[in-house]
Amino acid sequence: xxxxxxxxxxxxxxxxxxxxxYNKAKQKERVKGSxxxxxxxxxxxxxxxxxxxxxxPRGGCFDLKxxxxxCFLCASGHSCVPIPPMAYKAAMKxxxxxxxxxxxEMTKWRAVVRGMLEIAEEEKNGDGNPNADLAHLNNEQLYxxxxxxxxxxxxxLWRDDEERAADTDEEFEEWREAGGYNASPPxxxxxxxxxxEAKERKKKAVEKAKKTRELQKEQAGGSTEPKTGGxxxxxxxxxxxxxxxxxxxxxxxxxxxxxxxxxxxxxx
Length: 268
What we know:
Helices cover 65% and strands 3% of the residues. The chain contains 9 helices and 2 strands, in the order αβαβααααααα.
C-alpha cells in the first residue's frame, strides 16, 4: 500500500511538472500588446492575492496580440471579465495605492474591494436578492406571500406588546377610546386626589353662583328675569361667575395637562 501511494504521488508530481512546462511554452507563444488602463477581474484578483511577480502598474493587465477576448494573463484559460461596477471605484483606489507603495492605503482598500466583490458575486448568483424566491410566483401566490409577511410584521411589532395591543375587540375599543398610542399613563393616587379637590371646588363655585342668582331674583321682586341694571351693576354675580369660570378652567387644565405635570414632577 505504501508503494502504491508513493507511486501515485510521483505520477501527480510528474503531471504537474509537465503541465507547468506546457503553460510556460504557451505563454512564450503569446505576445503582449498594449497595457489596459482598467484591468480585468482576473488581474485584479491576482493583485489582491499578491500573486503578481514582478509587480506591474495598473494591475499588469495587457492586451493579447493578435487581439482576442482575453488579456495576456487570462489567455491561459482564466475567464477575462470586467470588474463589477459597484467595486470599480474601490478597485481603482486600491490599484493607485499599490502603484504608490502605500501599504496602509492598500490594506484599507483591499478589504473594501474584497467585500464589494463578494456582494457582487452573491447578487450574480441570486443569493443577495431578498426577493429572488418570489420571482417564480404568480399574482395569487404573491398576494398570499405579502399577506403572510404583513401578518408576521404585525405580530412582531404590536401583538407581543401588551401595552399597545389588545387580545379582544372590547379591549381594543377601550384602548382606542382612551386615546390609542397617545393615551396618557394611568393617574397616580396624588393625581386622583387633586382631581377630587378640583371637582369639589367646581361644585362649590356652581352652588355659590346658584345662590347668587336666587338672591338677584329676590332683590328684583320675584321676577323670573333679573333686571339688567341689577345684573350688570351688582359686583357679586360677576365675582361668583368669574370664580366658577376660573375653577372650571383650572379643573379642565388639570385634567388635560395632568400627564405633562406628571412628567415634569417625575423628571424634576
